[in-house]
Amino acid sequence: MKNLLGCIGEYKKASILAPVSVTLEVILEVLIPLLMASLLDQGITLGNMDMILFYGVLLVAAAMASLACGVLSGNFAAVASSGFAKNLRKKMFYKVQDFSFTNIDRFSASSLVTRLTTDVTNVQNAYQMVIRVAVRAPIMLISAFIMACKINARLALIYLAIIPVLGLILGFIIKIAHPIFMRVFKTYDKLNNVVQENVHGIRVVKSFVREDFENQKFDEISGSIYKDFNKVEKILAFNSPAMQSCVYACMLLISWFGAHMIVSGTMTTGELTSMFTYTMQILMSLMMLSMIFVMVTMSKASVERISEVLEEQPDIADVSNPVMEVPNGSITFEHVSFSYSKDMERLSLKDIQLDIKAGETVGIIGGTGSAKSTLVQLIPRLYDVTEGVLKVGGIDVRRYDLEVLRDAVSMVLQKNVLFSGTIKENLRWGNAGATDEEMIHACRLSQADDFIKAFPDGYDTYIEQGGSNVSGGQKQRICIARALLKKPKILILDDSTSAVDTRTDALIQKAFAQEIPDTTKIIIAQRISSVQNADKIIVMDNGRISAVGTHDELLSSSSIYQEVYYSQVKGDSDNE
Q1: Residues 49, 530: Cα–Cα separation, whole Å
Q2: What are phi and psi of 337, to 5 degrees?
Q3: DSSP secondary structure string, 129-166?
Q4: Interval 517-558: pLDDT, tens
Q5: 472-484 and 502-515 are packed helices; what angle lies between their axes, rounded to 10 degrees?
């Protein structure tokens, strides 16, 4: 709750004025029945026109003032709750930006989307209800009960008999409903995941004619949400008839006993009319409280899910007095081991010993699952080593300021991502202040300039979400250019030329050698041709370094390298 309340921020004033306005509204509403009783008993019953005018004017003034306070309270509550939700989303989003890959792995993308949207909306609605209705209901309840006691204490005791009954009903509803809401929101995560996968992979779905399968999958999850919501709504539906039963029971009892009191002369007609009004106010307040309990029950599940994100501690953080400059692009692995689960029995990388000099070009090959990507993801601290030391520029990467380290390392991941916007806007992710000339130069190095200029709008061509309107090879070359614009000390290409032809791949490697000789270049590839001219080639096997050497050295000494090389040479000759 402390994390959530901190999001009120600049909306504290509105959050305070909303309950203040509600309090004034309630006081005026409670006074109105009293004024009505005086109007009846001292004016209408006695035929006193002066008193009728006097109390009539007071009634109109009280009603108008109550209306104004109600409008103000609604406005303040809307501003406060919307602002609270805005700050909460911002805080969650910023928190996610600080997550390491390990933290992100604990939450699925669909789950984070649900928490940032549906869960925040539930909390927003609950907050608006708390600062308005939750203030109004108890004040109205207490004030109306005091006024009812003032008119006739014996009749007011009827209300006290109803409250325990309502409390038991609400307790029963909340106990059953809360676990269902928790289950529903988790199912929402699955639904969002299905929709996200379907929209992202719609071309694959259509090419394999799997629309029926996707529809069935969606229907099953959507049906599960329907069943849970249907069940919980049936439980919540008991709230309204229970409240109505209590209201009518009170009305009947007050009518019965009040009629006898009027006959016996111990109560006036005006007082009985006021008692009816206070009865409705008290029981409406109880109904409001029941609605609050229902909303709080629903939002409690959302609060818990939001708190999980806000309380998640990033596994990777800056140390005190971090190093603010990367001297060069040298990389040293000193007996490095790594496990995603932090379990030393389940290591992805095992005792890696490696030294890469600044400016070297290093190729990495290995079979699927040999931990090639894992190895390079440790360099910019996307993950932290589990055991051993990893140095960049001769300094342990854990001693660097994270932003400084990652600015010095450009990484083109296996899954290339382009964002909605123009090609220029995507390129400037690498360097926000890059000039047109710098962008064109980077694109020439990545062999992207020619096809970009062929587009009608050139560098102002709009890229659809995920880069769906460019080919895989074009996307890869734009991503490489984006990485080059950072002017990094270390450039990592994680199988990021797999979709380009061998001639273009060779031109990219040649451009790297000529234009960025001082940049350390690490190239993960499946094709031997992509790495055979590297200064050294690392052969990975089952999380270990199997061999290190030049193309010729490995061809004579490494059985794994020989197998890959000859299979590709044979495949090329067969294709010819």
Answers
A1: 102
A2: -125, 150
A3: HHHTHHHHHHHHHHHHHHHHHHH-HHHHHHHHHHHHHH
A4: 889 999 998 888 888 889 999 999 999 999 999 999 999 998
A5: 0
